């Protein structure tokens, strides 16, 4: 035994019991902390990916009865919309085969799905709220309502999966507030003023679920009711804080400039450098508020 080791043993032997206890507790705490950190950093394990594939990803392939809305069971499968819409937040890889995704694809898809999950508050996860009926607390979803209530077995399976994830694994950043006053003063005027040779946004988006750009009922100003309804509708196609994933800004943007592949109307902006696009992007990021318009 070396002299240094003998010294450490003697030092421990003469240490008061209280300090020995504290030292042991410290070692135990460090060991537990290291264990927890290791578990968190290891996510997702092969088992985690398989559980995700069986519980969540299999539902994305479920046939809902059709590709157009018209009833509780007549919506398209998730995979029909969330593979080719590459600019949206929930954008999955194209399945390798009709059977579904490979394990490596699923691992990458899990990273995408994580953006829709809040492990600190599972019930607030967009993965749960988008397919849930708005009548029971869900969010508007152009793909339809898959669950009429939180009693739906699929909803329950999704919720349990989120609850079993590490609590700090997926915690979304707080979303900025999208200012209504700026919308009313500066955004609605964009809808009413077409670019040269183009239609006004209001020509197509004046009513129904896509009626975020209604024509003013009286004169050239919108009533409070008209503006509020338009604001609620446009909120459905905005990802707060992220203009690059907001359909409101992607649909009228030319594909060569990073826009969506499809838009039945004209392409109002050729690139994201357009000052008008930049203004609206700043609004989506929460940078512009009030009635003062930068353009």
The CA-CA distance between the termini, in Å, is 81 Å
- Biggest sheet features: none
Q: Calculate Rg over CA atoms.
A: 26 Å
Share of helical residues: 40-55%
Domain count: 2
Low-confidence stretches: 4-15, 24-31, 34-40, 68-72
The helix-and-strand class reads mainly alpha
Tell me, briefly, the overall form: elongated
| SSE arrangement, N to C | HHHHHHHHHHH
- Strand residue content: under 5%
Mean pLDDT across every amino acid position = 83
Number of strands: 0
Summed up, the helix count is 11
Overall description:
The chain contains eleven helices and no strands. It has 295 residues and is an all-alpha fold. The protein has two domains: 118 residues, no CATH class; 105 residues, no CATH class. It is elongated, with a radius of gyration of 26 Å.
Summary tags:
elongated, about 40% helix, mainly alpha, single chain, 2 domains, about 300 residues
How does the SSE layout of this entry go?
Blueprint (H helix, E strand, L loop, with lengths): L2 H11 L3 H26 L3 H15 L17 H4 L21 H11 L12 H4 L23 H11 L16 H13 L31 H12 L11 H4 L24 H10 L11
Concise summary:
The protein is mostly helical.
């Amino acid at each position: 035994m070396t002299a240094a080791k003998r010294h450490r043993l003697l030092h421990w032997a003469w240490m008061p019991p209280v300090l020995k206890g504290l030292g042991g507790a410290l070692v135990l705490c460090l060991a537990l902390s290291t264990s927890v950190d290791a578990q968190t950093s290891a996510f997702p394990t092969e088992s985690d990916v398989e559980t995700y594939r069986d519980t969540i990803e299999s539902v994305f392939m479920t046939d809902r009865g059709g590709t157009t809305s018209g009833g509780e069971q007549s919506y398209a499968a998730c995979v029909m919309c969330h593979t080719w819409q590459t600019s949206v937040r929930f954008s999955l890889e194209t399945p390798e085969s009709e059977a579904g995704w490979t394990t490596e694809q699923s691992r990458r898809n899990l990273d995408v799905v994580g953006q829709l999950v809040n492990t600190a508050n599972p019930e607030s996860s967009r993965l749960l709220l988008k397919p849930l009926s708005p009548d029971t607390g869900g969010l508007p979803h152009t793909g339809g309502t898959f669950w009429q209530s939180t009693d739906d077995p699929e909803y329950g399976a999704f919720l349990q999966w989120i609850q079993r994830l590490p609590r700090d694994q997926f915690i979304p950043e707080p979303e900025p507030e999208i200012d209504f006053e700026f919308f009313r003063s500066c955004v609605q005027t964009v809808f009413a003023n077409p670019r040269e040779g183009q239609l006004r946004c209001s020509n197509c988006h004046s009513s129904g679920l896509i009626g975020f750009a209604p024509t003013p009922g009286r004169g050239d100003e919108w009533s409070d009711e008209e503006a509020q309804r338009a604001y609620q509708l446009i909120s459905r196609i905005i990802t707060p804080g992220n203009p690059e994933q907001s359909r409101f800004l992607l649909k009228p943007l030319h594909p060569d400039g990073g826009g969506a592949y499809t838009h039945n109307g004209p392409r109002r902006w050729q690139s994201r450098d357009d000052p008008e696009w930049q203004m609206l992007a700043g609004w989506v990021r929460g940078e512009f508020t009030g009635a003062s318009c930068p353009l």
